[in-house]
Amino acid sequence: MKAGINQIQSYVPEEPVQRVKSKYHLKRLARLSANENPYGTSPLVKEALINAINDGALNRYPDGDASELRALVGQQLNVAGDQLVFGVGLDEIIELVARAFLTPDDQVVVAKPAFSEYALHATVEGAAVKEVPVNPATGHFDFAGALAVINEATRLVWICNPNNPTGVLESPQAIEDFVRQVPKDTLVFIDEAYLDFADDPAKATCLPLVKRYQNVAVLRTLSKAYGLANVRVGFAVMPVALAAILQKIRLPYNLNTLAQVAAVAALRDQDFVKKAAAKNAVERAKWEDFFDQQGVKYFKSQANFIYFTVKNAADLAQTLLEKGFQVRRHLQPDWLRLTIGPAEDTTVMQALVADWLKQQA
What is the rounded CA–CA span in Å between residue 220 and residue 237? Predict the structure, then answer.
């Protein structure tokens, strides 16, 4: 067994919905802990999946090149097909990146806090992980701090933008200024899983950097705004030379036919994504106003969740759970991440949180 595996703690997910409902005798549980899209999935997806099944798609291996999906993504993002690598969610892409580019002599730089899988897969490969705390006041990525720890062993820097779990968005200019100062043999991978929820995704994306720098890649997923969390489709946009390396170790039939069909249908319904993002923005603003009124510290979010801190946060999370609202804990002491739900959930939850805060005063 690889030595690094001994250092890893198993992922601790929230309790399954049915188990929680049974335990607390709930008729409904709003799962606001996994940053899923509460507005469902484009109706075009269901239609496309039914047609694919009726056409007898299940007894044949899938298109190993994801040709239709590749062509559509390339067209929408204005990138060449051979710049794209598709995976079973971004989880597989992150794993492939670590497997392809990291050795036990390497160092990886990540923010603290950040998506845990960056560090997890680096550790599996035996690489050292250097965590750079975010700005404690604003939650922004500490670019100066990251540059200070980069050395000749640094092979990879992860930037989640907007960051999970803080929700904070860095500007493309700030990221490019950072890239210019990073050694050319150090990779800078930018995870834009939540970018669709930003106020202006077109201005916020770092995709143009992929054309200007040979050490930059951008990651996207259909699990969030597109509502395909259960389907598992993610991809990387990267320079052709880097993409070719990942293609060498990618499993030949990693993306099944139904996943490809669902992804194509979802990508063709941009109206669904825009409407979901617009609803999210309204509810996100309500939460920020609420926390401001209550004097609760939070980080300004451009994602579909908000990260906040209160004393005895575990008790608040348990109180909400028993009332039918599941939020994410276990990220940092006394911090909670709340996936932003529909208006009806916002109203009820804010009343519950306000009541809990009064009891704590």
Answer: 8
What domains are there in the chain, each with its CATH number?
14-35+271-360 (3.90.1150.10), 43-268 (3.40.640.10)
3-state secondary structure of 270: helix
- Asked if 133 and 162 count as a contact pair (C-beta separation under 8 A), the reply is no
Quote the Cα angle for 115-117-121, to 5°: 150
Per-residue pLDDT tens over the stretch 132-149: 999 999 999 999 999 999
DSSP 3-state of 355: helix
Find out whether 150 and 177 touch, Cβ atoms under 8 Å: no
Q: Which of 44, 83, 41, 40 is nearest to 264 (CA)?
A: 44
Dihedral angle of Cα 74, 75, 80, 81, to the nearest 10 degrees: 50
Nearest-angstrom CA–CA distance, 140 and 137: 8
- pTM of the complete model beyond 0.70: yes
**349 token code pair:** 């939850």
**Amino acid letter, 84:** L
By C-alpha distance, which of 324, 329, 356 is closest to 341?
Answer: 324
Beta carbons within 8 Å of 78's beta carbon, 6+ residues apart = none
* Residue closest to 131 by CA, chosen among 292, 191, 218, 141: 141
Give the start-end residues of each E strand in the chain. Answer: 30-32, 84-87, 107-112, 128-133, 154-160, 187-191, 216-221, 234-237, 297-298, 305-309, 325-327, 335-339
Half-sphere exposure of 185 (CA within 13 A, CB side): 7
| pLDDT by 10-residue block (mean), the chain, 361 residues | 80 82 94 96 97 90 97 98 98 98 97 97 96 98 98 98 98 98 98 98 98 98 98 98 98 96 98 98 98 98 98 97 95 97 98 97 78
Q: Which residue has the tokens 């298109």?
A: 63
